[in-house]
Amino acid sequence: MKAKKLYLKFADVLAKFKRNEVSMNNELEPNYDFDKIVNMIETRRNNAYKKVNEELISLYWDFGKYVSEEVNNSKWGNKLVEKLAEFMKENYPNMKGFDRSGIYRMKQFYETYKDNLIVAPLVRQLSWSNNILILGATKSMEEKEFYIRMCIKNNYTKRELDRQIGSGYFERYMLSDGKANQSIAKVDGDEDYPNTRILDTYSLEFLDLPNHYSEYDLKKSIIANMKDFILEIGKDFTYVGEEYRIQVGNEDFYIDLLFFNRELNCLVAFELKIGKFKPEYISKMDFYLEALDRQEKKNDENPSVGVILCSDRDEKVVEYAMSRSLSPTMVSEYKLKLIDKRLLEKKLKEITDIVDENNKD
Fold first, then answer.
1. C-alpha to C-alpha distance for 39 and 194, rounded to whole angstroms
2. Are 301 and 338 spatial neighbours (Cβ–Cβ below 8 Å)?
3. Residue 81 to residue 104: CA distance in whole angstroms
4. In this structure, which long-range contacts are made by residues 351-354, counting pairs with CB atoms below 8 Å and at least 24 apart in sequence?
5. pTM tops 0.70
6. Contacts of 66 (CB under 8 A, 6+ apart)
7. Closest Cα to residue 271, out of 256, 282, 260?
8. Mean pLDDT, the chain cut into blocks of 10 residues (361 residues total)
9. How far is CA 241 from CA 170, 268, 292, in A?
10. DSSP state of 29
11. Residue 272 and residue 312: Cα distance in Å, rounded?
12. How many CA atoms lie within 13 A of 184 on its CB side?
């Protein structure tokens, strides 16, 4: 009888397991629900993004107000803008948008919305890129409000907003209905701010963190795309890891991408550098290859090889790094069976151009 009960209990657990209702090893384990924790983290993170964007737009608003009032009231007149642009360049060289044209744009921004108590609070919910686009591409206040509300409701990027304005959506709607804002839901403070989940370059420079973050994001994007390309086009390449850790002494080092080439029977390390090629990059790669050969290479494998990818604004450079112990014959074989430099340079340029274009949104 006991055996039958145990069998029935086991059958019941097995059925639940097949229905993905319970793990066989965790039948009695409570169902941990961490949704509240996820919500807690995401809410605070989104609030931080919103706050950064709101403070940035408030800065541009106050800056525009200051310039507007000083130009109208002081003896400096428009000469104030020239002096202010020089001051910003000298004291805040990394902050984007504070040249002569940018300062005039802030002045225009303030003067356009300062008397509109309905629209003025809404502009702080848009990224500066979208605010600039609406400011320059629309005519009436009604049209501006229409696109501002559309941005907030639909979380538009700059590219999506530009597409809507370029298609004449406002004009088409007015011809069909005549009441622009009926189609746009009223916006309250709980809506997500458009284009602020990923901080744009204006926000990064406002926080005085442009170089580290923008370069890091660019590098990560290029590496992810390059990995897919190598696996797609590279014959006999097998993926090993990204940011692959090697330890030398008590210090850790990380290789951007590591593959194994079955035909060459060796590890292949890829390193991406943002900027012009420097000779010291070869020395650093030699250091990585030596560590790989000591720690990771198996006895029957050939010495590791490195590929350095340099992405500069004007040119893309690819260089190979190989062990000095390789014979000229082996060096020729490596170069023949690795992905051609010209193909890698062409792909690197293509990926970088795409990433740069997306970052402009």
1. 19
2. no
3. 8
4. 351/221, 351/222, 351/225, 351/226, 351/229, 352/218, 352/222, 352/311, 352/316, 354/225
5. no
6. none
7. 256
8. 49 51 52 80 79 91 93 77 91 84 94 95 91 93 94 83 89 72 45 44 62 64 85 86 86 90 92 86 91 92 91 79 78 82 85 63 49
9. 49, 11, 13
10. S
11. 11
12. 23
d(CA 186, CA 183): 9
- Give which of 205, 196, 25 is closest to 98, Cα–Cα: 205
The C-alpha atoms of residue 234 and residue 189 are separated, in whole angstroms, by 50
- In this predicted structure, what is the pLDDT of residue 216? 67
Give the amino acid at 173. Answer: Y
Radius of gyration of the chain (CA): 29
- What pLDDT shows up at residue 12? 57
The SS3 assignment for 252 reads strand
> Residue 232's pLDDT is what?
83
Show the tokens assigned to 160: 């999506």
